[in-house]
Design a protein that fits this description.
By secondary structure, the chain is an alpha/beta fold. The protein has a domain of 238 residues: Rossmann fold. Helix content is 40%, strand content 15%. The protein is built from 11 helices and 14 strands. Strands 3-2-1-4-5-6-11 form a 7-stranded parallel beta sheet, sandwiched between helices. A 3-stranded mixed beta sheet has the order 12-9-14. Strands 7-10 form a two-stranded parallel ribbon. The protein starts with 6 loop residues before the first helix and ends in a 9-residue tail after the last helix.
Length: 343
């Protein structure tokens, strides 16, 4: 089972999000997506703040498989401040207790096909909103995605919340996320939208479709860092302690009806990211780039403009990317399964 988050990260979150946590005194939260990448950070940081500040807050966590979560993360799942509610996001039974805050962070993108995923996003959001209304919730935060702006953007270096996104493919993840935002903003529940970009930190899978995770895995395995494309696309990565600070602050203090980009605005190409990962973790590693850049072709970007989050909510990046890579690798190293003895 994975080890807890580093104590210094939990302390860092509490230091920067203390006013947000203080406003959750005696709160009862309903959290979707609480068993995934985002969820572990949200729940562990909430439990740390709960103990440190004597908040007496409680969280109900919707999960499709309560037994699996208890087996994976028993310290979180079995904590007395956590109640697991087993059910499907589209049809879950409403808890009988009133809940004051809703954090709709379900982010699973693995399903049979895109239309099924899109339907799950929309039906799940409608169900969460119905519960929020039924429960008399005071605030709701929806974690949307930078994908609502479309893909392969080359006309700007950073994408603002007002970027004129093109029509999105119907029944796609991107379109469903945009439509789910609209459901939240049209509801009577005071709602804030967090459009999340790319992140790095403990609990990030190293064997999935995340380039930075794959690069860290290569470095830890002492093998060449492999780029399947040409290395030119521009990305940015926010460390997960900053994500937790941002989401807790937005849930509790951001103006209702507002939409914010969540991520780092420090742009890095995929090739630069590979070199930075090697320099940080294993400087002798070679970088293997399969593709060749096309001359005079602007690279696509997936980098947010975060000016609005700075100016309206007072949020900042506090962890440099190299440090984020180092911390992520260190956590995965401590969680590595020892090899069985030979001979």
């Amino acid at each position: 089972m994975p080890k807890p988050l580093p104590a210094e990260d939990l302390t860092h979150i509490l230091t920067h999000a203390r006013p947000a946590f203080a406003s959750l005194k005696d709160a009862r939260l309903f959290i979707t997506g609480g068993t995934g990448f985002f969820g572990h950070w949200l729940l562990e940081s909430l439990l740390h703040a709960n103990q440190s500040l004597a908040l007496n807050a409680h969280a109900t966590v919707l999960t499709r498989n309560a037994a699996a979560f208890r087996n994976k993360s028993p310290d979180v799942a079995n904590h007395p401040a956590i109640t697991l509610l087993e059910g499907d996001i589209r049809t879950f039974a409403f808890p009988t207790q009133p809940h004051t805050h809703i954090l709709h962070a379900a982010t699973d993108t693995v399903t049979a096909d895109s239309s099924t995923l899109a339907a799950s996003i929309l039906e799940g959001t409608a169900r969460v909103l119905a519960f929020a209304h039924h429960s008399g919730a005071r605030r709701l935060l929806y974690t949307s995605s930078g994908a609502v702006y479309g893909r392969n953007i080359t006309t700007v270096s950073r994408i603002s919340e007002d970027f004129p996104a093109p029509p999105l493919p119907p029944n796609s993840y991107d379109a469903a996320k945009r439509q789910a935002e609209q459901l939240c903003l049209a509801s009577p529940i005071p709602s804030t939208i967090a459009r999340c970009f790319a992140f790095v930190g403990p609990h990030l899978p190293l064997d999935a479709h995340f380039a930075i995770g794959n690069f860290i895995a290569d470095a830890l395995a002492n093998r060449p860092i492999h780029i399947k494309g040409d290395g030119t696309p521009l990305r940015s990565f926010l460390y997960m302690s900053d994500l937790a600070i941002w989401l807790w602050t937005m849930l509790t203090t951001a103006p209702a009806g507002s939409v914010y980009n969540v991520g780092s605005d420090e742009s890095v190409s995929i090739a630069e990211l590979a070199h930075l990962t090697a320099a940080t973790l294993n400087p002798t590693l070679p970088i293997q780039i399969d593709g060749t850049p096309t001359p005079n072709t602007p690279p696509p970007t997936y980098v947010p403009d975060i000016t609005r989050a700075h100016t309206e909510v007072g949020l900042h990046i506090t962890v440099p990317l190299a440090e984020a890579i180092r911390c992520t690798a260190a956590w995965h190293t401590t969680n590595a399964v020892p090899s069985p003895p030979t001979g």
